[in-house]
Design goal:
Catalytic activity: oxaloacetate + acetyl-CoA + H2O = citrate + CoA + H(+)
Radius of gyration: 22 Å
Bound molecules: acetyl coenzyme *A, oxaloacetate ion
CATH superfamily of the largest domain: Citrate Synthase, domain 1
CATH class of the largest domain: Mainly Alpha
GO biological process, one term: tricarboxylic acid cycle
Largest sheet: 3 strands, antiparallel
Number of helices: 16
Distance between the termini: 32 Å
Pfam family, one: Citrate_synt
Oligomer: single chain
Shape: globular
Strand order of the largest sheet: 1-2-3
Keywords: Acyltransferase, Transferase, Tricarboxylic acid cycle
Number of domains: 2
Helix content: 55-70%
CATH architecture of the largest domain: Orthogonal Bundle
Structural class: mainly alpha
Number of strands: 3
Order of helices and strands: EEEHHHHHHHHHHHHHHHH
Organism: Granulicella aggregans
Length: 378
């Protein structure tokens, strides 16, 4: 038995090599394939960023056009999967439904049971388009609204908003949403991506890995923190409380404040910089900066009191709310973006695989413990 004990939560442990995402948590740097997130947020699109993550370089104009066309052509949901969306209880959470529907998708995937590199890439196109469709379509169904057919002429971001709302989105909303998708697309070995890689490393198929990743993303310490942040803002408003006093009481009660802190960043999360600006700009454009103002007050207090920075989830809450998106769609929307990174990591794992199987430091009863016959037990 090894005597080396890994730090709790594997903090700081380097568990694999990867060429996809580079983070410097001290300097607040995030890059996809070496390209700074600020450049991508300023100039790229979700399609271009996804190409970069999957193929390791920025596409030429022709490559981007055919990639976008192929992604749009994959906007098809099997009939049986749409049936599932009709049969689950309307109060099922969109995250539960997404996890279950992605699992079901594997049964109907044209490339099953192949997990070659090319089959994985084809499945990644389909999963990326289908996850966005599942989130929008289930939301329509649970609200008793008619399903909106995909519009293959629209970008990934615009088509999602179209299928969700049944109205062509404004350029401002589309660009804001597109930037949010770029910002959430990948983040090295975060919990859901690590989960996906562990599953993929057994040589299980990409749908199994993504189903597991969705489950991991749903927790409030990870992607679920965007919903928890908005629930906090609503609770403060409902109580008519001062935001700073409210979170001060939470800290005094040893509660964590969702949307703050990060395992890797010890400075500003570079994605929060964009989401803070978007939250403010969208609020101003909508003539309602209530959520932004409340968020700013909380951020100032938590920073000065706990030296904790806002993470990606904090300002995405007020940004999505200002875009008119329901709270329980926030984490599914994280998945709408993160599928691009998950797929890149599963493909990278399958391309150069070894089973991931660490050890545990055993703390149980000493070996050999006696087996006491049933009749003799107290
Ligand atoms: C997309 C993403 O996944 S981004 C992260 C989303 N998650 C959240 O926003 C949930 C709130 N944040 C947290 O729980 C944490 O900051 C995590 C899980 C993100 C990372 O934390 P870790 O590196 O594991 O730190 P850990 O949870 O051990 O906390 C270390 C200390 O900081 C405190 N702390 C960390 N985050 C917070 C917070 N949001 N509010 C209050 N205190 C906090 C802890 O209470 C702990 O204090 P202690 O040493 O006095 O016990
Ligand atoms: O990297 C992490 O631990 C969590 C995170 O910010 C992400 O997944 O985007």
């Amino acid at each position: 038995m090894s005597t080396t004990v890994a730090p709790k939560g594997l903090e700081g442990i380097v568990a694999t090599t990867s060429s996809i995402c580079y983070i410097d948590g001290e300097a607040g740097v995030l890059s996809y394939r070496g390209i700074d997130i600020h450049e991508l947020a300023g100039h790229s699109t979700f399609e271009e960023t996804t190409y970069l993550l999957w193929f390791g370089k920025l596409p030429t104009a022709d490559e981007l056009a055919s990639f976008s066309a192929e992604l749009a052509a994959a906007r098809v949901l099997p009939e049986k999967v749409v049936e599932l969306l009709h049969t689950v209880p309307a109060d099922a959470t969109p995250m539960q439904v997404l996890r279950t529907a992605v699992s079901l998708l594997s049964i109907y995937d044209a490339d099953e049971p192949s997990s070659t590199h090319d089959a994985n890439v084809r499945k990644a196109y389909r999963l990326t388009s289908q996850i966005a469709m599942l989130v929008a379509t289930f939301d329509r169904i649970r609200k008793g609204k008619s399903i909106v057919e995909a519009d293959l002429t629209l970008s990934h971001a615009a088509n999602f908003l179209w299928m969700l709302n049944g109205e062509k989105p404004s350029e401002t909303a589309t660009r804001a949403f597109d930037i949010a998708l770029i910002l959430h697309a990948d983040h090295e070995l975060n919990a859901s991506t690590f989960a996906a890689r562990v599953i993929a490393a057994t040589l299980a198929d990409i749908h199994s890995a993504i189903t597991g990743a969705i489950g991991a993303l749903s927790g409030p310490l990870h992607g679920g923190a965007n919903e928890a942040t908005m629930r906090l803002l609503y609770a403060i408003e409902k109580a008519g409380a001062d935001p700073v006093e409210y979170v001060r009481d939470m800290l005094a009660a040893k509660k964590k404040i969702s949307g703050f802190g990060h395992r890797v960043y010890h400075t500003e999360d570079p994605r929060a910089t964009h989401l803070r600006r978007m939250s403010e700009e969208l609020g101003k454009a909508a003539g309602n900066t209530k959520w932004f103002d409340m968020s700013k007050k909380i951020e100032g207090y938590i920073k000065s009191e706990k030296k904790l920075n806002a993470n990606v989830d904090f300002y995405s809450a007020s940004t999505y709310t200002t875009l008119g998106i329901d709270i329980d769609l926030f984490t599914p929307i994280f998945a709408v973006s993160r599928i691009s990174g998950w797929a890149a990591h599963v493909i990278e794992q399958h391309d150069d695989n070894r089973l991931i199987r660490p050890r545990a430091d055993y703390l149980g009863p000493a070996y050999p413990a006696p087996y006491i016959p049933l009749a003799d037990r107290a």
